[in-house]
Amino acid sequence: MSTTAPTAPARGAGPAARTPAGLPGVLPLSLVRAGVELRQFWRERDAVVFVFAYPIVMLAIFATVFGGQDQGTEVAEIGFAQYFLPGMVATGVVLTSFQSLAISIAVERDDGTLRRLRATPLPSSAYFGGKVLLTLATSVVQTALLLAVAALVYDVPMPSDAGRWATFAWVFVLGTATGTVCGVAFSSLPRSGRSASAVVTPVVLVLQFVSGVFFAFFALPAWMQTLASVFPLKWIAQGMRSVFLPEDMAALETSGSWQHLATAGVLAVWLIAGLVVGVRTFRWRRRDDG
After folding, report:
1. How far is the C-alpha of 97 from the C-alpha of 234, rounded, in Å?
2. pTM of the full predicted structure?
3. What is the per-residue pLDDT across 184-200, written as a single tens digit (0 to 9) for each?
4. Which of 111, 94, 71 is nearest to 216 (CA)?
5. Strand, helix or coil at 20?
């Protein structure tokens, strides 16, 4: 008697809470899948260089071009490298989570990888678990390299108290989780793998310009600050500024404070919204594949 592997509907992530009989649990399968994802990631050397080098290169450009100047205000004077480091950390998180996942999943859908995976006993939760672990691993390495370069090459002072590092940890984890979930949800928007980069990259680029990554946020027009406040990148960058900048610099923020509660709230809203949209719209097949 022959059997055939069960197939799932073309649209929607489908039920993923249960693992087929005889297979390990979701967590061990997620770890295995993460190993596969990491090996595939390291084989794409151009992507590896971009993911790890982009924030460092951008910080180096700012520090070199404006290295002889201070980010002077009526509140405090700090070096350009120190002021822009939080924005580089934030944009690195968004690039590694949102942009990388939105593009890579769209490509995997287009080349049939998702359809083939869906026809295997691997639960969908393990597939997404592997993506999450890949994102966390690459984000940690990328951020560690960026902080090391900032401290050793550009003499950016690192926080000296545990409270600031605790803030760094929750902003980093929540920001990465939000970017990951939104990246999965956004991956269904490009019509093909070839168009994914053209669809995703401009979104991230615009957010970088209006969210205080390339320019001092307090110097941006009010309408631009309001627009940026709708999206996660601004809040991740602001949270990181509260970690790496002097406390007096909080006076330059829109509300005159670091707004940690608002940061957590906005990121949580985007996390939940991305999860809801992703569950409802995620596709395992191309649009023209049934």
Report:
1. 15
2. 0.86
3. 999 999 988 889 999 99
4. 71
5. coil
